Amino acid sequence: MDSAIQVVNMAGAVQVSAQEVNDRFHGDVPASVRFYCPFCSRPVITRAMGWDFDSRRRNHVPRTRNPHFAHRRKDDWAKNCEAYHAGSGTAREEMTLPLLMFLRREPGGNARFRVEIALRRRGLASVPSRLQSEDTITVDDRPYSLRELLTDRRNTIVLTDPLGRLESRIRIPQQWRKNVGCVQQSTGIMIFSDSFGSNGGRRLPERSALRSDCTYYIVAGEKRMKGARSCFDRAESIGSLAGDDQLHVYAVSVSGASRRKNAVDDWLSQYGYCLSDVDRAAQLMWPPSLRSWGVDEPLFRNSSPTYRFPYRFNDHPMQDAVTSKRLHPDPRAREIGLIGFDHPDAVEAQTEWFCAFFRLFAFWCVRAVRFDSVCD
Q1: Whole-model pTM?
Q2: What is the percentage of the chain residues whose pLDDT exceeds 70?
Q3: 28 and 137, same domain (yes or no)
Q4: pLDDT tens, 250-292?
Q5: Domain edge (last residue) among 246, 276, 306
Q6: Residue 23 has what pLDDT?
Q7: Which domain holds residue 152?
């Protein structure tokens, strides 16, 4: 690939071309300078940089190939990247919401936790009136009314044995999967954010990139976590699941300057996750917003959300002009603003009820925003 995201400690991420890197370092790239794929956020390495040594002539000669970046050959995670195979036309995966799950500490402040299934209620006010009594979500052969789950946010489903083949234990009506979400494949562990601080957080979708210098919670058996203890800078057992002392909750984190990051990345890749120093999501600049459910919910009803590109191009100052873009055909829906995007007209958007997902051409600068929050 011709370009990559350059990351240096204590500096912002910048997208650079291979030729620029070659002109600057002449093939001798410092170890403190790291590069990541702009498509999948996986580490990439420099190729065909500097001069080649001709052993016959005993001198340096120009390389026959142009400078470029490449994924590591044994990086199984990167094999799913559309830039991994040169010239391949890999189909882009669908933007599908996973079934919402939370890790919550049991009341009383003890070391017991539970995993809950919940429904996304925001923006679904009209759904309960269309639901029938037979519209249920079935967990372990027990039906739960979708209408009741949507009526009160306190109505959740406590999931026992959350690591045991959920794809066969949870059944969701086909016509409601776009609203409720899909069941993620069981991998032997569950990873949650720290959205609730020390009380738990939201489950991360598969193929998520974990960030350095952030705390995450892992639900797993002690045997699976043996290898992780030597990888993470912090891997501390903070409790167990209520009713199952064999499943522990671990608080894990790794420093952005840690030498263990490659080991953490290798361990996470076994379970469909990766570690990245690069945040490819478009950055919401205005207005203030809630994001506890993974969706931007602007607090000011009459303000249009404005997003900034996550990193600079070629070390040049970012343009501050705002380009307006309409994501939804509803004339009442307000536009979003884009700052720093070279091709704002290449926005791809997909709407599901009152939620809009958008991304910019090949780069997964994905955000989800409630467009009803910015409607008259």
Answers
A1: 0.62
A2: 73
A3: no
A4: 999 998 888 888 889 889 988 988 887 766 667 788 888 776 5
A5: 276
A6: 85
A7: 94-276
Q: How far is CA 142 from the centre of its chain?
A: 32
The residue to which tokens 């959740």 are assigned? 156
Which of 269, 257, 249, 263 minimizes the C-alpha distance to 213? 257
* 370 within 8 A of 354, measured Cβ to Cβ: yes
**Quick one: 222 and 368 in the same domain?**
no
Contacts made by residues 47-51, CB under 8 angstroms, sequence distance 24+:
47/18, 49/18, 49/21, 49/22, 49/25, 50/22, 50/25, 50/26, 51/26, 51/27
Cα–Cα distance, 43 to 38 (Å, whole number): 10
DSSP string, 281-325: SPEEEES-EE-TTSSBEES-TTS--EEE-SSEETTPPPP-PEEEE
- What is d(CA 41, CA 274) in angstroms, rounded to the nearest whole number? 9
Residue 179 domain-assigned (yes or no) = yes
Domain count, the chain: 3
Cα–Cα distances in angstroms (integers) from residue 40 to residues 36, 44, 236, in the given order: 8, 10, 29
∠ at Cα 230 (225, 232), nearest 5°?
80
**113: β partners:** 105, 241
Residue with tokens 């704002």: 344
CB under 8 Å to 100, separation ≥6 — which residues? 117, 118, 119, 120, 181, 202, 203, 293
Contact 173, 239 (CB under 8 A): no
Q: CA 345 to CA 172: how far, in whole Å?
A: 37
Question: pLDDT-derived band of residue 312, with 50, 70 and 90 as boundaries?
Answer: low
| Final residue of a structural domain among 57, 80, 103 | 80
Residues 65 and 106 placed together within one structural domain of the fold: no
CA dist., res. 151 & res. 161, Å (int): 26
Write out pLDDT tens, residues 153-200.
788 999 999 998 898 999 988 877 777 888 988 889 999 999 888 999
**102 and 67 share a domain?**
no
| Neighbour-count burial of 243, counting CB atoms closer than 10 A to its CB (0-12 exposed, 13-18 middle, 19+ buried) | exposed
